[in-house]
Every structure is written in C-alpha cells, then in structure tokens.
Amino acid sequence: MAQIGILGLGTVGTGTVELIEKNNDIIEKRIKERIDIKKILVRQSNKERPIALKDKITYSFDDILDDEDISVIVEVMGGEEPALTYIRKALNKGKHVVTANKEVISKHGNELLKIAAEKNVNLLFEASVGGGIPIIMPLKQCLAANDIFKVMGILNGTTNYILTQMTEQNKDFDEALKEAQAAGYAESDPTNDIKGFDAARKLAILSSIAFNTRVIPEQVYTEGIDTVTHSDVIYADELGAVIKLVAIGKKNEGSVEVAVTPVLLKKDHPLASVSGTFNAIMVEGDAVGPVMFYGLGAGKMPTASAVVSDIMEAVRNKNGNKIYCTCYDSLKVLTPGETVSGFYLRLKAVDKPGVLSKIAGAFGENQISLSKVFQKNTINGTAEIVVVTYSVPFKNFQKALAEINKYEQIVEIATAIRVEGEL
Amino acid sequence: MAQIGILGLGTVGTGTVELIEKNNDIIEKRIKERIDIKKILVRQSNKERPIALKDKITYSFDDILDDEDISVIVEVMGGEEPALTYIRKALNKGKHVVTANKEVISKHGNELLKIAAEKNVNLLFEASVGGGIPIIMPLKQCLAANDIFKVMGILNGTTNYILTQMTEQNKDFDEALKEAQAAGYAESDPTNDIKGFDAARKLAILSSIAFNTRVIPEQVYTEGIDTVTHSDVIYADELGAVIKLVAIGKKNEGSVEVAVTPVLLKKDHPLASVSGTFNAIMVEGDAVGPVMFYGLGAGKMPTASAVVSDIMEAVRNKNGNKIYCTCYDSLKVLTPGETVSGFYLRLKAVDKPGVLSKIAGAFGENQISLSKVFQKNTINGTAEIVVVTYSVPFKNFQKALAEINKYEQIVEIATAIRVEGEL
C-alpha cells in the first residue's frame, strides 16, 4: 500500500481522488500496490467537502510533511506559492513529488530537480504540459536517442477553442471568448490563456527538455490571440491556411528560439486540423523525423490521468535510477529581433493609386521578398491590403513596418501574424 | 561504458550502428555512459562490410552470448527463428535485450517477459510497433492510470502508402502496389503487408498491453487491402469517407475484439488524414479520453530511434523495477461472427426493376438497417449498387450476403468493407 498526500482539492485534485478510487484495482495489478490517499490539504473555508473524504482533510501542510507513512506528495493546487515552498520541503524531506504545476516547473524546475537528485526521489510533472497527453516521458526516454531540433505545439485549449469557433462558426474574437467562458473553457479572467502566458510556460518546459538547455518563461517571445480578428481568419482561409496559437521551439547552431504567437499554418499541416480544446505537440528529431502527440490538454480527468500515472511511476520506480535535470547545455536564447519567419500583414490605407507600390517599396528596401499582395474591400475610400512575405529577419520586418506606418496614406496597421512554412 | 552486441546488420541494424556513432556524445550526457558496440552478429556471406565495423563482426552468436563485457543484446535480425532462440538464451544468461521483432514479441512475448522477470533484466521492444513512434512505454507507464477500452491505428506504412496513392493519385491497386515497390515502400513479396499480417502482429502486441490480456496474431481477424478497388475509393469519397487499413482492438464487458481490416473512415476522423507511409495509433482510456500518437512507422532511422532509446533505457534502468508481462487478465477474444459494425457493400446486378428492393429485403429479414442505398453506373445492362448499413452483427451481415448471392439478378458481390462510426 503506497500512502500519498494530496495538496489541493480543486478540479485536478478532485479528479485525482476520483480516478484513484475508480481504478485502484487496475492500479494494484499494474504496480503491485494499492494507492491509499491518507491526507488531503485544503484551505480552511466553509466549503462543504465530500463526506467520504472528511477524515482525510487537513488544513496543515506540516501534517502531511511530517507523516512518515506518506511517501508521495501530489501537488495539484497550482500557482507559484505556496506550491513551490511545499514541493521544496517535500523533496528535502525525501518524499517523492508529483505535480501538475507548470508555473513552478517552468520557473524552478532546475532547482527542484537538483534537490530531488540529492535526495534520490522522483519529481514527476507529466501533467504540467498537454494535460493527459504523454509528452514529458516520451521526450526524456522514448526519443532520447535523438538530437531534437524542433518542438511545435498547440498547448492551450482555451485559445484553440476560441480560434476554432472564429474559424468554423464565423465568430469574432469577443463573441468567441464569451462563449468559451460560458462553456467553462475560459476563466473569468482569461489573461493567462489569451495572452499566451500559459502556453509560454509549457513551451519553456518542453524546450528545456528537448534541447537540454534551460529556458524560462520570460525568455519566450509571447503574443496572444486578442489581436486576431475574424477578417484575418477569413483571409487566412483564402490563403489556404488556418490561424492557430502555436508554441515553437527551435534549436539551431548553438542557439535556441522560443516563441508563442498566432501563426498562419497551411491547412495540410498536421497541427492545422487540431480543433476545439484539443492539444497537440510535434517533435522533430534527427533520427525519428516528425512525431506528433495529440489529445485533451486540460480538464479534470485527462489531467488526473497524467497525475495518477505519475504517482504509479513514482511508486514503481522508487528505488530505480531516475532522470533529473537534463539541461547540461547552456545555449543562447535568441531575442525576437534575431529570429526569422514569414509574415502575414493586414493594413488599411487610403484607396489611391501608388499606395501598393509604396508599401512594396518599403519591404524591398529592407530586403523583404513578398509572396503575395492583394487588396480587399474598399469602404469609404479605405482599402484593406493583405501582404504575405517570404522568410525575413524579424527586425527587418519591424523596420519596414515602422516606415510604412509613417506614410500618410496608411490608416492603420491592423494585424501582423507569423507564417509557418510557405503559403 | 555500456558494451552491447547487435544481432543483424540489415536496414535497422545499420541504422542502429549509425545512430549510436552519430549521437554518442548526446547519449553519454543523457545516461552518463557511452554505448560501445563490441560485437555484431552477421550471417557468413561474401557481402562487403564497412571497414570500420570489420573487427566487430562475428559469425557466432555464442561469441556474443559468452562475452561477459556485453550487458545488452540488441536483436534486429527479424523473423521468428533463430531470433527467438537467441533472445531466450540472452535473457537466460542475464543480459538485457532490446528487440524490434514484432513476430517474436507478438507470439512469444509472454514467455520471454517471464524469463526476463526471473533474471531481473530488461526486455524492451518499443520498435516492434509503430517504428519510431513512442507507444509501448506510453501505454505501459504514461497512461497506466487508465482503464483502456480501445486502441485503433494505422500500423502498416506500405498499405497506407498504397491506399493514399489510390485516393490522391487515382490509381488502381495493382498500379499503386507496383509504384510502392519501385519506391522501396513495399517488398518484392508484399504478402505480409498487403494481407494485413504485419498489422495483425502489431495489434496483438498493442492489445495485449492495453487490455492486460494475452492476444496472439492468430486471434486477430485479418483482411488485406487487395480486394479494395479504385471504385471503392471513389464511392467512399462520395460518402465523405476514406478507406484505410485499420487495426482495431476493443475491450467490452470481459471480452476483447481484435481486427485488421480495410475500413471506411469519415474524413474528419483523426486517422483519416494520416497519409503516405505515416502511422498513427489512437488510444482511448476512461480518464484521458482519446490520445493519438503519430509518426513514421518504419524505415531505417525512425526504427533505430526506438531501438537506441530502448538501449539507453536498458542501461539506465538496469537496477530499477522493470515492467514485465502485464497480461494479468484472461479475457475472451471474440470470433468475427460475434463482432458488430457497419458495412459498405458494392455489388453488381442486372439493371431490372425490383433488384434494389430484393436486396433491401434480404437485409431487412436479417434485422439489418440500411443507412444508404444507391445505384451507380450501368454498363451493358449491369448496374453497380452501393449499400451502407448501420451497425450489424457480422454473422447477420454474412447471412444476408449469402442470400443476396443466390439471386439470379446478382452478377457479383464485389466488395464488403467495414465502416467505423456512422457515415
């Protein structure tokens, strides 16, 4: 019987408890031990707790920390503190830790994995990226023979749901966001999702593992989807593409490039058909080529699947060799100005002869080749112009934009979105 | 330094050697040991071997078996014998074994895993299913908290390439097969691929692990793609579907159903867009929901990716708790007659009034509801008729077919293909 303590009884905590109860017979057959939830840490409140759990509930972390029967501590409270402090204490006390906390792992994974190594305990965090989708262990073990040079994924279900609604149901951003909130797919304060911060944390974790170099969320160039309009979705469609919030990590000649941005993806790209709240992660290695992992990236039971599987792994592998921090390289993380990609640009200009050539001229002067330029609807003398560039250094693109912005014929530079591959 | 012996220097063996040489620095960082290929077993022949390998080559298996420096034996020769005997001897001698051999594992995995358990050594076979795609370890570990009730995959790249060519390039089966042979995607004797035997072995391995009950290839109902014609591909397209060779394993109320057959899949099914030589495996668990794994299911370097990653795992985990045979249940494997699915049927009949109603009548008498019936081209008085049924027990469908076949107006029952889901 493996006794565990759980920190937090929110959505993921409740799912974890339910899944252990439901599948404990299967768990016992698979790891030769049942899992016994001995204690659950919750905040003191008037909240009604399920009767079956009442004598497991505690309001004191030390009550769990000091319990010598408890060998695995499961952190599913979320947020940076006090989760970080609790995990640190648990590891230092020689307890195995399973966590779903992307914020703690993306910012403090290196410190925590070092403590885990000193204490020879497991620190597992499969649930921190991609919910129930197996990705951390496959990266660290199944693909370990590869030099991995790219990870690319749809890592946030909320934004993918919103973009899917904008594409398939012809909704504008605000409307799709409200609907996502009503459906429970977006929080009342959706900032972390919408602005790309959630995906940036997950990308920092994936990139650190894939490229064996430490990447923290602050180093990830991050743009949200709140500037994407329904017009962009329609023009993307005309260009044979869809707009997705994509997290991209690339390794190249001793440097790493990490970004979370809206991206125009050709419709035949494997990530283009990942819709709704589904997530997917593509990994490219020198031997394996491209592999993709797909599934539900959030939610009570999918996340509990990863948490409970990690608990089983921690119990099974308590005496085995463990994998700790794998960031043995120190690669430079490029600044956005040093990165290269194609761009889609939508702008509004006074509909007069010579405007298009002036815009094209500004790109030409900055060594930017254009793959497509077309003029759309003219309303009240203002024309909408769409430009697609070939690959271009981000700083050249910004310089061209600044020049174009000075032209008096330009009414507005509405959207600039990266393009992955060639349209 | 972990010293290994490799059995076989064909495509996968050569890839394994090349990958270890290329990435040994990365391997050393990741598992704290370099891999040293000490000996390679090849058949005595006049074949020219690379000079760099000359002093590693041996013609005697015992030379590797009795070498006390060698702790891991890598079997990449393929075929049932002598591979089975060699693996058995290696395990009994206390050596870790890594193999890519689907035939040996699907037929003898239980016996070999028992020996491995007795000797406390690793027996790893990630490369036996899906080439470089991580699937065995994800099933055994990352998804271990789930009650898994379905695995469904495109497990054979050769047949998927042929069906893709038939669909996208408007080719007939024979033409597409010849082209696949010319491109090196099909062997000169393509029987194992075309008839579904290769996929059946892989499904037996996946189902045994997913459902924790032993399934051997002989229990897999297996149909090949050689009866699929270009007409079927076109009619499937009109029905909003594609034809794929799909391996399906389902668990239901104490029994298991396993089949490899051509299947009509709706175009929005995640497996429908898996084209060319790519493979993909969907797994459905009670907590995680659907997850999919996608990548190159064969080929020199993708397969080497899985083999070398397994070697690294065997070295890393030599002293840890290992996962052996997980078939602790003994579920009944249903016979084809006990299974239920929808069917697509194409037949040729004399174009006379009353034929359609007679056909519909035969289905009705066998409690089979039809979702679609339509008549296609009539040539020289013979009409092509396409029927799509709702879900129906296979034995009822066969009974109806036998009755229809007796009608003198029926010229030919051309094709019967399973339908997954509703069209």
Task: Provide an overview of this structure.
2 copies of one chain form a homodimer. Chain A has 423 residues and is α/β, with parallel strands linked by helices. The first copy, chain A, has 13 helices and 18 strands. In chain A, strands 7, 8, 9, 10, 11, 12, 13, 14, 15, 16, 17 and 18 form a 12-stranded mixed beta sheet that branches. A 6-stranded parallel beta sheet of chain A has the order 3-2-1-4-5-6, sandwiched between helices. In chain A, strand 1 (2-7), helix 1 and strand 2 (35-41) form a beta-alpha-beta unit. The radius of gyration of chain A is 24 Å and the shape is elongated. Strand 12 of chain A pairs antiparallel with strand 12 (289-296) of chain B, so a sheet runs across the interface.
Q: What's the CATH H-level superfamily name of the largest domain in chain A?
A: Dihydrodipicolinate Reductase, domain 2
Tell me what the CATH architecture of the largest domain in chain A is: 2-Layer Sandwich
Q: Count the domains of chain A.
A: 3
Residue stretches of chain A low in confidence (pLDDT < 50, at least 5 long) are none
Q: State the name of the first-level CATH class of the largest domain in chain A.
A: Alpha Beta
Binding site for L-homoserine (chains A, B): 187
Family (chains A, B): Belongs to the homoserine dehydrogenase family.
Domain ACT (chains A, B): 344-418
Binding site for NADPH (chains A, B): 102
